[in-house]
Write a structure and sequence with these properties.
Elements (H helix, E strand, L loop, with lengths): L2 E5 L4 H12 L4 E5 L7 H11 L12 H5 L2 H4 L5 H10 L8 E4 L2 E4 L3 H4 L3
């Protein structure tokens, strides 16, 4: 499986992560989260594989998250509804994402990404 790097190009953390991947000669397919938002099917698979709590997948510091008042709304939503919401707008998803055969990486933490 080829690594999939999902980013928002204007995000400084995404830029830092991309440079790190390139510096470490890690091949990847680059996807712009705003133009090629992960589907509900993809997200469901990655969420199951990743083992992270579903809340971890939300970009809680993003404007859209705050605008939609999701902090409170998520409490009453089903997992299916949350996944469909994430798939509806890439800006709601925490980034960058790295989908690899070695795991699912949410956000950029160099020490964790070294597992690659």
């Amino acid at each position: 499986m080829k690594n999939i790097f999902i980013e928002y190009p204007k995000c400084s953390t995404c830029q830092k992560a991309k440079k790190w991947l390139e510096k470490n000669n890690i091949e990847f397919i680059d996807r712009n989260i705003a133009q090629d938002t992960p589907t509900a099917k993809e997200l469901t698979e990655w969420i199951q594989r990743g083992g992270y709590d579903l809340k971890k997948w939300f970009n809680t510091s993003g404007l859209k998250y705050k605008e939609l008042n999701l902090k409170d709304k998520l409490l009453t939503m089903t997992d299916k509804e949350k996944i469909e919401l994430l798939a509806s707008d890439g800006m709601l998803i925490k980034r960058p994402l790295l989908i690899s055969d070695k795991g699912i990486f949410i956000g950029f933490k160099e020490d964790i990404w070294k597992a690659l």
